[in-house]
Amino acid sequence: MLARTDRRMRLVSLIAIFCIVSLTLAGRLAYWQLGQRDFLVAMARGQLERTIVEPSPRGAIYDRSGTVVLATSVYRDLLWATPADIPEARRSAVAEEIVRILDLQGTAAASAREAIRSARSYAVIARELTPAQSRQVVDGLAVGTLSGVGLDPTPVRAFPTAGGAPGTSLASQLIGFVDSEGNGRYGVEQRWQALLAGSPRRSVAQFDAAGRPISATLQVVDPGVPGADVQLTIDASLQLKFEQELLAARTAHEAAFASAVAMDPFSGEILAWATVPGYDGGAYREVANSDPRRFVDPMQSGVYEPGSVFKMFVALAGLERGAFTLKTKYNDTGMLTVRGGRIYDSDRRAMGVLTVADIVAYSRNVGAARMAMALGPDTKTAAQVLYDTWQVLGFGQPTGVDVAGEVAGIVRDPSVQPWAELDLVNGSYGQGVAVTQIQLARAYSAMVNGGILVRPHVVRVAAGDTLPPDPGRRAMSEELSRELTELMRHVVTSVPWYARGTLIEGYDVGGKTGTAQIWDSAAAEYKPHRFNLSFVGFVGRDAPRIVIAVRIADATGTAVSIPANSHEVFRRLAQDAMDTLDLPPPSEIALEDGTL
Q1: Phi, psi dihedral angles at 531 (to 5 degrees)
Q2: Other C-beta atoms within 10 Å of 105: how many?
Q3: Can you give the three-state secondary structure of 236-257, one letter per residue?
Q4: Nearest to 491 by CA among 532, 424, 444
Q5: Which of 8, 145, 214, 306 is most buried by its number of CB atoms within 10 A?
Q6: Which of 360, 342, 378 minimizes the C-alpha distance to 491?
Q7: Which CATH number applies to 236-282+298-580: 3.40.710.10, 1.10.10.60, 3.40.50.2300, 3.30.450.40?
Q8: How far apart are CA 546 and CA 269, in angstroms?
Q9: Alpha-carbon torsion angle 253, 254, 257, 258, nearest 10
Q10: How many alpha carbons lie under 13 Å from residue 170 in its C-beta half-sphere?
């Protein structure tokens, strides 16, 4: 009896354990089948479905006429291979045929051979084949010299208008380029990426475990938005002439680069924006490997000490505050000792007593220093007055130009870092301050357009809509603007060598030169016989109509003997502008206070 009782208890225990396990499994099964159904379905779909992302056609970039294409998208073939599908005995022959067709050398050839000889299921061999290369691949597949390879058309960016220098596309640094992922880099392409690129088309397709499509039908989950076209304010013909003139100037000076911008001072429209050397936007990979510094546009991304073009601003500061008039006289002694050091005129000669107008015209550093010291009863006050004038004109702040990569410049606030007397006088003639070329063009525009600081811009029409003008803000009175415009005329008419190199018969011309030494941070001194040459001025038929800022960077020469100076380059560019452009009369600009 006891033995039977023991067996019965063990059986009952086993049945109980079985029931518990069964209930646990049933509960777990119910949890997965009912509670986690959506999760399991999603996992299954994730193993079978793939999202296919197709970029939308990128918008084109045109010049101001809307007819000259500066950037567009074309299709080039991508060459792929499935090495696992190529018989092992034929892989080497296929690899050599691909190397021959693509004319690959060195590491590129070795990479292609390695990819095709591998057993990978898929490999990208080359992007952006030329039409001739694509035809050879198709022919090779047809006759059997190639197998296990294919072509996929992919959109690439093309820049069809040639620039003013060999091997460049027009306005390359302004426009930028588009990388292999479809992202705009630098310039207009980066700044207007969202608009130009649109949004991609997204669809879902099902594949089996071997990667074969189950159905040819795609489920579109997002149709995407095509990229929009952009029309610039740039005139293509003027842009080309600017680049050609700058190429000649850079060569003559053995300069690092030469750049110039032409701006409508009333609307802020940029009519030409050129730097030499540029590059071919379609060959950005080669540029990245050889000289990536070319991608950085000095117009808005590079700062420099501008030199004597800043003498107009110390004149503005003194005239505005009544510290002096254009007829006030100061003694130009050729050299001046101030607290912190000595300053010299470029020729180290004294010209004697000169009016403020002639100090600016003859670009006398000592005279400009005395003008700066007259801005206040002490260095602290005078420094603040000069700094405030710079601030009103936008120095030390981005202009807001609609191009990627703009920097603010370097302008020291004397209320934060007090200026020594040497800092004050250096600032009066554009040393010890770093600005961009577009800032100079904007500030000079305010001095000739009635006193309005407008926002420079390069995009005129986007997505089919004309962009509204920026009304700007008042930087000085109309009366002071007229006085400064007359001062710029005085500069180019009263100084014989400026008159010979700058004036254009039948046109209204004015402006100011700048010749600045270049600081060598490694040697902790200024470079000998190397200068940044600048000229900012205006041209028009009867009155100022276009402002042009020229810079020849790191140029050879001496302060008193420089070939084809910046004002001569300005004259050629100004003549090109007047011969090329047919601009309407200046638009009336609404000011912040509602006046016109």
Answers
A1: -140, 155
A2: 9
A3: HHHHHHHHHHHHHHHHHHCCCE
A4: 444
A5: 306
A6: 360
A7: 3.40.710.10
A8: 10
A9: 20
A10: 22
- Report the predicted TM-score, pTM, of the whole model to 2 decimal places: 0.84
Question: Digits of tens for pLDDT over the chain (596 positions)?
Answer: 445 556 677 777 777 777 777 777 776 776 666 666 666 566 655 555 666 667 788 999 999 999 999 999 998 888 989 888 889 889 899 999 999 999 999 988 999 999 888 878 888 899 888 899 999 999 999 998 998 898 988 888 999 999 999 999 999 999 999 998 889 999 999 999 999 999 887 777 666 555 555 655 567 777 778 999 999 999 999 999 999 999 999 998 889 999 999 999 999 999 999 999 999 999 999 999 999 999 999 999 999 999 999 999 999 999 999 999 999 999 999 999 999 899 999 889 999 999 999 999 999 999 999 999 999 999 999 999 999 999 999 999 999 999 999 999 999 999 999 999 999 999 999 999 999 999 999 999 999 999 999 999 999 999 889 988 888 999 999 999 999 999 999 999 999 988 999 999 999 999 999 988 887 777 778 788 788 899 999 999 989 999 999 999 988 865 444 445 788 999 999 999 999 988 777 655 444 443 33
DSSP designation for 32 = I
Sign of the Cα pseudo-torsion (32, 38, 41, 46, in order): negative
The dihedral sign for the CA sequence 460, 463, 465, 471? negative
DSSP 567-581: HHHHHHHHHHHHHH-
DSSP-derived pairing of the beta strands 61-62 and 230-232: parallel
- Give yes or no for a contact between 571 and 577, defined as CB atoms under 8 angstroms apart: no
DSSP state of 186: S
Distance CA 311, CA 365 (A): 9
CA atoms within 13 A on the CB side of 486: 9
| H or E element in which residue 393 lies | none
Q: Token digits for 54?
A: 């197709």
Asked whether the beta carbons of 228 and 75 are under 8 A apart, the reply is no
Nearest-angstrom CA–CA distance, 399 and 473: 12
Q: Which two tokens stand for residue 42?
A: 């999603």
Structure tokens at 86: 């190529």
Distance CA 555, CA 276 (A): 13
504 exposure class (CB count in 10 Å sphere: 0-12, 13-18, 19+): middle
